[in-house]
Amino acid sequence: MSETQPIDALRHLEQEALSAIAEAAEERALEEVRVAYLGRKEGKISAVMRLLGTVPAEERPALGQEANRVKEAVARAIESRGRILAGPGGGGHHDLTLPARRAWKGARHPVTQTIDDIWGIFRQMGFTRARGPEADSEWYNFVALNTPLDHPAADEQDTLYLVDSVLLRSHTSPVQMRTMEKHDPPIRIIAPGWVYRRDTYDATHTPVFLQIEGLVVDEGITFVDFKATLAEFARRYWGPDTQVRFRPSFFPFTEPSAEVDVKRVITRPDGTRQETDWLEIMGAGMVDPNVLDNAGYDSERFTGFAFGMGPARIAKLKHGVDDLRTFFDDDVRFLSQFAR
Amino acid sequence: MNVSYRWLRDIVPGLEASPEEVAVRLARRGAPVEGAVSPGAELGDIVVGRVVTTGPHPNADRLSVCTVDAGAGVVHVVCGAPNVEAGSYYPFAPVGAVLPGEIRIKKSKIRGEVSEGMLCSARELGLGTDHSGIMKLEGDHRPGASFVGAMGLDDVTLDVEVTANRGDLLSHVGIARELAAAGSGNIRLPSIPGDPALSPTYAEDARAVRVGSVSITVEDADLCWRYLGAVIRGLSIGPSPAWLQERLRGAGARPINNVVDATNYVMLELGQPLHAFDLRRLTGDAIVVRRPRDDERRFVTLDGEERALGPDMLMICDIERPVAIGGVMGGQNSEVEHDTVDVLLECALFAPASIRATRRTLGMSTDASYRFERGVDPDSMRTALERAVSIMLATAGGALDGPVLDVHPRRAEPTVVPLRLARIERVLGVPFDAGRVRGLLEPLGFTVEAEDGERLDFGVPGYRSYDVSREIDLIEEVARTHGYDAFPSEAGSYRPSTVPDDPMFQLEDALRDALVALGFLEAQTPAFVGDLEGEVRVANPLNTQEPFVRRDVLPSLLRRVEYNLARGNRDVRLFEIATSFRAGNPGGPPVERSHLALVATGLREPAHWSVPDEPVTLWDLKSWAEEAARLAHPGSKVIPAAEEEGPFEPGGTFALLDEVGARIGLAGRVRQDRVDTPPWAEAVWGLEMALPAQAPPRATRIFHRPPLHPPSDRDLALLVADRTAAEEVLSLIQSSGGELLESVDIFDHYRGEGIPEGTRSLAFRLRFRAADRTLKDREVDRAVQAIVGRLKEELGVERRG
Predict the structure, then answer these.
(1) Which of B677, B680, B674 has the alpha carbon at shortest distance from B556?
(2) Is the residue at A95 inside a domain?
(3) Is residue A250 part of a domain?
(4) Could you tell me if the ipTM is greater than 0.85?
(5) What is the crossing angle of helices A223-238 and B421-428, to 10°?
(6) Which residues of B touch A200 (CB under 8 A)?
(7) How far is A122 from chain B (nearest CA, A)?
(8) Which domain holds residue A72?
């Protein structure tokens, strides 16, 4: 027997065995293949192993190593083929199609996620977050914001009072004044928070809801910056094809004031694109000089803009939720749909 | 504000825009149209029918049988109304027509007589409340013609949203001005059919005027700035003519009678509320404008409601008693009736704040109060009054008696507002030259009073005097008229904010992240609760069941657990971060604190075939409590609470303490009486923790090199008396282990065979390590000996076996 012959024979046997394994169509045929190659008495590979003693001593380690490798490779192939032939649930193995063992999946509330997304965009545009109390005074909620208490815009029918002049803030705008009192310009903030109104629950109103206020004050801030910043936000949030429209409106603490509408382009599952109707997304405007004066700022020197939006309404539109009250039900089957 | 498109077109003759185009233009100018309906929208099936014959029903005394020419031949109709006359025209609903309220007309037999359609009353058509008889059509008509066309109901009513600053837009003329300024030509008041072309004279004074027997006195001039009264005698009250009814219906108003309709017409056209008093019911033929006297505390308004009067409500009185709440609503004791002959027509100007206060106190809002609150044009009062008188004379007859009384205590100076061109650019970011500014503002009625190249002084028309008094108000008008869309939208550079990102948001986010990672869903619950759960009361609550804002958040979450369990959701893990309100100083604001609450019930992890189902346990809760407390209050501790704390079962409650030992929260198994669960539900676990008033600074982490030398582990099984806390044993081991002791863990807890009564076995794994060398066994043994010695000495704890 020449030096290379036993190794060649082994490799040949390996190939032969692997094809026979692949061709075995049922478990009994596979068992026959196993006996034919690895059977202790008649197995062809076992036979080669038995010959090892006859090989010259210097060739023995190399040949022995190769023989072991082949034996293991064939055994592995038999096992793996056996698994396939036994079916997913058979052969004493796990059926790997069984469901995984999972942990409970948590999720932020969908409205929190909407705030997160909005905050993420404003953070990229250099904003920080500010906050203020939910129970506040008439001064911060109305008067400082250029809304005299005898003005129709300060309608107490809509405001929940606690005692005397203390109320539950009806918007997040008091944070404007509280922030300006503590800090000098430049101001660039958003202020998410809960606000309270004397509304009854229906599909589009809840007496307590989240709002996001925004305020920018510095020298040289103009109506053009105002439009550009909010249009940029809208395109980043709703997509680059979003159209943005500014309509004149009235808020006592901004002048000029605007309603901001967007028209989105939605891509349907079939790939076609569709324009939505115009959606009102925020009230906004240039900060009224009286507000800046009330904050102790020089309104001749500083200008700014402010805006406010309702993330629950935005979440409602975005996720196709038809009733705002759904956000307060906290049904785990609803909330878990928003897990990441 | 409901606006008739046809009326608008009569005021703006050049207006070619369709109702849709008008809506777009108004929206661009800040008065969006919320909806548009036609007053005849539901009456498309109705035609004009001419009654040819009428005769008695053979089988019913109260019914009649008519033949009606409805254009397509003569049909038989059974009719129940007493007033049908042969030869007259009536609205007719043929077979197949659908009436308002989805009533479909079918061919039928009524007491044996065939009826092929229906003659309609005004009420059946939704055009009025009168159902005493069929609605007779005035004038000549073609049978079969569209009823909507014949009645002028083919108008479009636009629902225009008017912002609180623009009282001037609460009229057709006001809306027309905006459209005219937007390029629809000039405006004019439509002609009145039968206009008597009055040119009345006026008797004027600052406080009181008398003309013949009639007198007007304004006593409280702070609340009533002007009061005009016209005396009209010899009227006959009746229905208004078709043109007037059409106008009102087009603007969404219901015709009532010619006198009331005339006042409503003028209010809708010019924005000036008017009121007609029945002169014979005014004692002394006098009007006295004053606050109520002490004995005048009750007043019945013309809607039949008795109202409680406040001392600062402005009343219109005769010489004896109040006859109207000024600017809000007239009184039942002086209203025009069907047999009224002489009226005193009021056209007044009241202080907006006073009207607002009055109607707020009374809890009512009327068309008049709504306009007075927002400001009525002081410059067109005579026009409004004369127009109303003209309509009354044209539609109800009679004559103006003598000069009009005009009591005018307060004359406003004309408003002049300077506008700097440089300031416009500073606010709007775009330069406007003087010519452009004039071109934008003059069509709105602003007049240039002075001009010097850098600055224009604008006179403000009366109808804008309420919302334009400052430079910024004019700048807004420039921007609005120029068109917001016409401004560029290019972002400039910005300077960074001086305001740091509030660390409380970062702490709340960190807590949210941690709890979401632990498999909790974030909930949001309303803050309103009943009296057991709050100490801060809302003065004007939404409802009487929940008049408080909450002290704690957990009870709200427990209700959400109940909600979920009721829907068969067995596994509920919720958390919420929300504000807790506690009573502050009397009369002051409450004390607010951010709270975290969480609840969990059901399985520790979703059911899986490979492991037995295991519900949430005390040890899960403890780990959540420790995690939450650690994030919010570094250095905090979670310890066993005293018995009976919060809504939790005794003996299974943890107290959360901050770094100085102050209690910040509780966690435990929720008592059965605090959460209503079905029998199949697992235990409910809950936690409530106050967040710090200020977020803790985030500690900078200092790098520790992972050890290079191997550890030596020793297990120590100890017999610990039940009265000795595991915590005590643990901390004694830690403090007595010396610097070689790296960590201690408890890995077994056993009680039972071989363990004496009143004790349990606790097994500790001690890991020793030196930073600079591999430890020798005898060093470790010495350290263990020292620990065992201290345990025995101080706690009487022995090694087991």
Answers:
(1) B674
(2) no
(3) yes
(4) yes
(5) 20
(6) 542
(7) 12
(8) 4-86
